């Protein structure tokens, strides 16, 4: 079974989007470099960010998101982002009307069931959990092995929190990766057990 990683770009004050769900400059680092991060050529980063991010992205087999992210992205038009094989959506609502049942999206109604399904689909590859409400719920449930953050030099002041509704203390190990890219600081922490 692969590891479970909570991941996202985040402001220095801990937000993944503003109050209106807009990420503002949080993803600018993904277009400010000269090294293509994927086949589309739309994402271009510094060589340092490429070396760190591409190696991680290549390990991901499944991404878990909440229904809110799924709806904001229009379900990526039924094609998982970044070459990921499957997306597990945590939701209490049914799949959208007219949704292609063959699309590699799986709709599950709680975080534990979502994790079980994701691990089954991922095998020995990484299960990525999107930062935010679902990520915070997974961390609180003890289901996350590692936290990765792409910290962007911006202060939002308010908005959608990286760890969502987590209201208890959770200890992380010292960072085992601190990598400075252009307009981003990549951090990686193991969750203390």
TrEMBL record:
Pfam families attached to this UniProt entry: RibD_C
Name of this chain's protein: Bacterial bifunctional deaminase-reductase C-terminal domain-containing protein
Example of a GO biological process term: riboflavin biosynthetic process
InterPro entries: DHFR-like_dom_sf, RibDG_C
Domain Bacterial bifunctional deaminase-reductase C-terminal: 86-170
GO molecular function, one term: 5-amino-6-(5-phosphoribosylamino)uracil reductase activity
Highest taxon in the source lineage: Bacteria
């Amino acid at each position: 079974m692969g590891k479970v990683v909570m991941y996202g770009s985040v402001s220095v004050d801990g937000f993944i989007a503003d109050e209106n769900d807009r990420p503002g400059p949080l993803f600018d680092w993904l277009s400010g470099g000269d090294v293509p991060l994927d086949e589309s050529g739309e994402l271009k980063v510094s060589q340092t960010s490429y070396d760190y991010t591409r190696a991680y992205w290549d390990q991901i087999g499944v991404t878990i998101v909440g229904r809110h992210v799924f709806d904001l992205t229009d379900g990526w038009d039924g094609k998982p982002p970044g070459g990921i094989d499957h997306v597990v959506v945590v939701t209490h609502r049914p799949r959208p009307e007219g949704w292609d049942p063959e699309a590699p999206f799986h709709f599950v109604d709680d975080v534990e069931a979502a994790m079980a399904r994701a691990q089954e689909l991922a095998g020995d590859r990484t299960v990525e959990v999107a930062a935010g409400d679902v990520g915070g719920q997974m961390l609180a449930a003890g289901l996350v092995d590692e936290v990765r953050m792409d910290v962007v030099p911006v202060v939002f002041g308010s908005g959608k929190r990286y760890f969502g509704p987590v209201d208890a203390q959770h200890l992380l190990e010292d960072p085992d990766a601190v990598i400075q890219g252009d307009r981003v600081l990549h951090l990686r922490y193991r969750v203390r057990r």
